[in-house]
Amino acid sequence: MVDDNELSKLRDAAVPAPGESAKARAFEAALRAYDQENISAATQGSVGGLRLTERAQQLWSEIMQKKLIATPALAGLIALPIAGYATFHLLREQPPKFGGDEKITETLADKPATLKPTGAETDVKQAPAEPAKDKKADADVESRDATEVLVAPTAPPKSESTIAGGSAQQDALGRGIVAEPAPPAPTGEFALDGTAAPSTSRVARMPAAESKLMAPRPTMAPADQMAPQEENRNRVQDFKTNPVHAALEDPVSTFSIDVDTASYSFVRRSLKEGSVPQADTVRVEEMINYFPYDWKGPDSASTPFNSTVSVMPTPWNEHTKLMHVAIKGFDIKPTEQPKANLVFLIDVSGSMDEPDKLPLLKSAFRLLVGKLKADDTISIVTYAGEAGTVLEPTKASEKDKILNAIDNLTPGGSTAGEAGIKEAYRLAQKSFVKDGVNRVMLATDGDFNVGQSDDDDLKRLIEQERKSGVFLSVFGFGHDNLNDQMMQTIAQNGNGTAAYIDTLAEAEKVLVEDASSTLFPIAKDVKIQVEFNPNKVSEYRLIGYETRALNREDFNNDRVDAGDIGSGHSVTAIYEITPKGSGGEQIDPLRYGQATVNNGGVANADEYAFVKIRYKLPNEDVSKLITTPVTSANEVTSFDQASTDQRFSVAVAAFGQKLRDEDATAKFGYDKIMEIATAARGADPFGYRSEFLSLVRLASALGGNR
Q1: 546 and 690 co-located in one domain
Q2: What DSSP character marks residue 618?
Q3: Three-class DSSP category at 399
Q4: What separation in angstroms does the CA of 576 have from each of 141, 253, 539, 656?
């Protein structure tokens, strides 16, 4: 019987620290207990019983003991595959040692077969990883490739082979490394098609005595299982590319001119952020008209603009030609500029609380204030939940007061766009300048969600207000919630322009360098109508202007609204035409249509086309007409003979069509566009054309519509 004193001594004695071998044995026992209790024998193969290598050894033993093979030669033939089978699995279970500083490295042989995930598997959620017991990471574990992907099979593997264990675990213990068991199979909402198929990989890590345990690093989901990208909430008008028309059937083309530039800025931002722009954000005419061109202008303000028409070979189609229509507005001298009455209508709703929205907007409008003359008038209206007047009509000479009002703007609330527009028009009427410029300048991301948020309702509101002589321009900011469609609608119907400002440099271009053309109109409701001579032209198509198309009868109807031209503004339109008999026709000729042009001759048979431009002066309601016949006198024999500006504008037109993946430029590479634009860069004082070349390179690198 044990003495009580001895028991007391044992009870009071300090517990000795466990030895390294004892801890290793305890850890191995825990692993085995975990396997037996938690892991299904059917899927994991870790139940008690003979391993494959042991079965091979037992089979060989029984063969030899029972003398099933009497002939040694025959026994040798059978022994070879059995020995190879056993050796293969022994190598899998106990990898060879290559030195004293080894680590267990997971290989493809240790992983289950990778299967293509089914539709249901792409929604599988990954079970949470075991939390780390210490923030210090083991260097050997960190060396694992974080991008390795394991895809669990949809059904239990039919093979009885198991993952590293048994002798492999003992080998790992002997080297101071233990293997962590895989977590139990996912169940419930995490299960793969209702089947239990857990990953069989194990993460190697050091024992507790040498380093703190580290949680296994979660495997990276494959591309088709990763979380979806943030939804694109930009609202852009869908439109189809202009079709090819047969001049014999449909000889007349009518459209409103466009001096907006929003599309080019939006395309530029997309490319610089590493993505090919959505096709409907590319309006080719806005890209062409983004650049200043040195077209020949009128000699006096009595004729607000001059038009120049040229015909040249098409660089992307040897069977067609380009008819290039260039319009240049009269440039008002600064000393002759009329007084300006401007109302800044600024969106300060919650959606504007982004660095590229309200902060950029405030910086942009500060630039504009510095451009105005002392006797110009500025008012500021904000809207967020409800409209509010931040600054009553104030002379630009009180610059500090205006800038302080801008600096104090803060975002918050929903977007009461309707109320803001009405208040802005009220202030514009309050300080209306006769024979001057009266304009509301709306700056927003276009997220109208309180009041009249429907584009048609806003359109009617703007149409009604423009009759009073107050025009409206729209400046868009931001890129994740931009209502480009609304911007285009109200700008077109407010006798104004739409621009997209993505950088402070763009704000300087729109509001400082182009301030005259942005603020001071010289003509309104400008329409173009071209009639093609079917005796010279088989087919034609207008490049761009899809959202500006007008009916043929709209051209002579002065009640139909159209685009406006500002001081010094240039507008370019390009047609691709197919000369008769060139062999480039895409439309089969009519069986009976030829008689209509050959039965008595055609007047003006030597003309390619007849260009008509109709416009109104800013303060008038009756239109005037300018006409230009297009003959061989307007033609150059080679593309290189066209002017520098003409060739550069054609390069921009080709780039826009390429981004839209149009058939015409499908075989015209970015290298050709670069070649034309580089040769025609010409004078580039502000670097706009150099920047264009960089965008072409970006689009080429991104593989946009090769």
Answers
A1: yes
A2: T
A3: helix
A4: 63, 12, 8, 14
- 669: amino acid identity, one letter: G
My answer on whether 483 and 564 are in the same domain is no
Do 352 and 398 fall into the same domain?
Answer: yes
Are 175 and 26 in a shared domain? yes
Does residue 71 fall inside a structural domain? Answer: no
What is the rounded CA–CA span in Å between residue 343 and residue 431? 10
Contact of 438 with 428, CB cutoff 8 Å: yes
Please state, in angstroms and rounded to a whole number, the distance separating the CA atoms of residues 690 and 681. Answer: 7
Q: What is the pLDDT of residues 510-556, one digit of tens each?
A: 999 888 888 888 999 999 999 999 999 999 999 999 999 999 999 99
CA angle 689, 570, 695 (to 5 degrees): 25
Q: Can you tell me which residue has the tokens 């449909």?
A: 250
192-199 mean pLDDT: 42
* Helix ranges (DSSP H) in 453-601: 455-466, 484-493, 504-508, 515-519, 595-598
Q: Answer yes or no: do 191 and 305 share one domain.
A: no
Please give the backbone phi and psi of residue 646, each rounded to the nearest 5 degrees, phi first: -65, -45
Asked if residue 166 has pLDDT above 80, the reply is no
Instruction: Report pLDDT for 596.
Output: 52
Q: What is the DSSP string of 2-51?
A: --HHHHHHHHHSPPPPPPHHHHHHHHHHHHHHHHHHHS-HHHH--SSS--
DSSP-assigned beta bridge partners for residue 136? none
How far apart (Å, rounded) are the C-alpha atoms in residues 549 and 445? 26
273: number of Cβ within 10 Å: 11
- For position 402, which CATH number holds? 3.40.50.410
Averaged pLDDT score across all residues of the chain: 76
**Mean pLDDT to the nearest integer, 314-331:** 96
Domain that holds residue 256: 245-332+522-582+603-702
pTM: 0.66
Let me know if residue 594 belongs to a domain.
no
Are the C-beta atoms of residues 491 and 548 closer than 8 Å to each other? Answer: no
- d(C-alpha 302, C-alpha 98), whole Å: 92
What's the number of domains the chain is made of?
A: 3
DSSP 234-291: -B----PPPPPEETTT--EEEEE-----HHHHHHHHHHHTT-PPPGGG--HHHHHTTS
Say yes or no to pLDDT of 503 above 50: yes
CB 501 within 8 A of CB 265: yes
Whether 472 and 504 have beta carbons less than 8 Å apart is answered as: no
Phi/psi for 639 (5° steps) reads: -65, -35
Can you read off the two tokens belonging to residue 328?
A: 């240049």
In this prediction, residue 43 carries a pLDDT of 44
Q: Which positions ≥6 away from 388 have C-beta within 8 Å?
A: 381, 382, 423
Helix (H/G/I), strand (E/B), else coil: 415: coil
pLDDT of 100-140, one tens digit each?
444 444 433 344 444 444 444 444 344 444 444 444 444 34
